[in-house]
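A favour, since you know our structure tokens better than I do. Could you add the entry underneath, on a fresh line?
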Amino acid sequence: LYSTYKQTKNRNLYYHEPYKSTQKGVPMFLLYAILSYLLWAYIHEYAHLLTAKKLVGVKSYSMKIYPHTHPRLGLVFASVSYEFEKTMTKAEKTKISFAPRIPDAIALFLFPFTYNLDLFWIILVGGGLVDTIRGSFIFSPTSDIKRYCDGWGLHYPYIRTVQLSLVGLSLSLFILLRVY
């Protein structure tokens, strides 16, 4: 007997046709991308703040998660400024600069497993890959990668290559899982 009821894959209530959300078009993609940017800007800056609070203490702080002109740094995509409770050592400054790489690493690990999820989740987790790519280049003397490479005596081009290679690996695994 023919039924008009459309079966889900293995009767899984959470299954949906892959990339079904792309039917919503460009406006939803742009909305998801903007939300992802805001979330990852917050995650990135909060990682700095949380690490600073743990290592040296923070009396007060100001966070902006949108593009703006910073009084000292010029044009930035997001920033956090803080007043420390004690003087920071070079090692502490290095750890604070490295902090956003931890949530980025989690995103790099999780991204391949979003292959069968809604476009919203793919873009949301993929924001961590974009943050890793952006964080692999020196845009100013205060760039995170410059600070932690200098602080730990690491060769910047090598670290950039490792970070970008991990992004490539994550994307490749995503594509392989999506295709097969």
Residues 26-55 form the longest helix (30 residues). The longest strand covers residues 58-64. The beta strands are 58-64, 68-70, 74-76, 79-84. The two ends are 31 Å apart (CA to CA).
